[in-house]
Amino acid sequence: MYFPSPVKESDSKGTQAMAFERTKQKDWYQVLGAKPSDSPAELKRKYQKLALLYHPDKQEADVPAGEVEERVQRFIEINQAWKILGNEETKKEYDLQQRGHSIKGEGTNYKLFRG
Question: Is the pLDDT of residue 42 over 90?
Fold first, then answer.
């Protein structure tokens, strides 16, 4: 399953693939400051804390425009992480996907699988 992507279906397949690659590479646990072993309640607590901290309506008026944009992007990223990790089904699929990528990244010793 592909996780939510910022690309619309009407975009070309190449653009979708690039957006998916960017999404795949993101560590959503790191975005929330969480670990895969955290309970759903702990994930929610961390999400809520960050969402309040970075919510655009909670920002001070005298913040420079560049910093405001960075904070808005961070808020969007936090919400994306919650959409994936806050749902039991998508979290499970994301965890499996991450495990698969870490195994591929470490390299597989095929001699271990021979009889």
Answer: yes
Structure letter (DSSP) for residue 7: S
Which domains does the chain show, CATH number per domain? 27-91 (1.10.287.110)
Each residue's pLDDT tens digit, 58-97: 888 888 888 888 999 999 999 999 999 999 999 999 999 9
Nearest residue to 84 (alpha-carbon basis) of 13, 18, 24, 15: 24
Using CA atoms in the order 52, 56, 57, 60, what is the torsion angle rounded to 10 degrees?
90
Cα–Cα separations (whole angstroms), residue 97 to 1, 19, 102: 9, 16, 9
- Round to whole Å and give the CA distance between 79 and 73: 10
Which residue has tokens 């653009």? 15
Rounded CA-CA distance 115/21 in Å is 35
